[in-house]
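As a next step, the fold was encoded as tokens, giving this record:
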Amino acid sequence: MFWTYEQKEPDWDGKALVSASEKVETVKGKREWVDLQRFSRRQVERLKVVKVIGWTEFESEDLSPFVPLLRLMEWVHVGKPGTIGLGQILVTT
């Protein structure tokens, strides 16, 4: 996906991010599953869409390696239902 927008590989180190993520703790959060329906014109039927609504607060000595990736996710949306307007996130620091 990154290649589609930038025509190059991302400049972050995936293995280093995974390693750094082991030091990140979830401090607070609230999540709620919401069942939605949408109509598919192609399939001519109603389809079930599951959505998670909520927020999460993370804490670590250094969260800065994750900010570029989170900003990208904020821009392109995240997950399968992103194409129908879901999958939105907001990053605050």
